[in-house]
Design goal:
The chain is of the alpha+beta class. The chain is globular and about 35 Å long.
C-alpha cells in the first residue's frame, strides 16, 4: 500500500470532478481547496505503479496544470 498527499494545481480545478474519477487500484479523498483554485487530494494505492498511473490520470483532467507530491508513505 502506498499513500500520498497531492496538490492538484490549476486556476479552477473542480473538486467534484476529482471525487468522481475512478483509478482502479487507487482510491482518492478530496481533502479541501487551496486559495487560487487548487485542491489537496489524499490517495491510497495498492502499489507505487498504481499511484503513478493515478497521478498521470490526474494530470490529464481539464484545468489541471500540475500534480505535486506533498507527502508519500509506503506501507509494508
Amino acid at each position: 500500500m502506498v499513500e500520498s498527499l497531492l496538490l492538484i494545481k490549476g486556476p479552477a480545478v473542480d473538486a467534484e470532478v476529482l471525487r468522481a474519477l475512478s483509478f482502479g487500484n487507487a482510491k482518492q479523498v478530496v481533502v479541501g481547496p487551496v486559495p487560487g483554485g487548487s485542491v489537496v487530494l489524499y490517495i491510497a494505492a495498492e502499489s507505487a505503479a498504481d499511484l503513478g498511473r493515478a497521478q498521470l490520470d490526474l494530470a490529464q483532467v481539464a484545468g489541471v496544470t500540475a500534480v505535486v507530491t506533498l507527502a508519500l508513505h509506503l506501507l509494508s
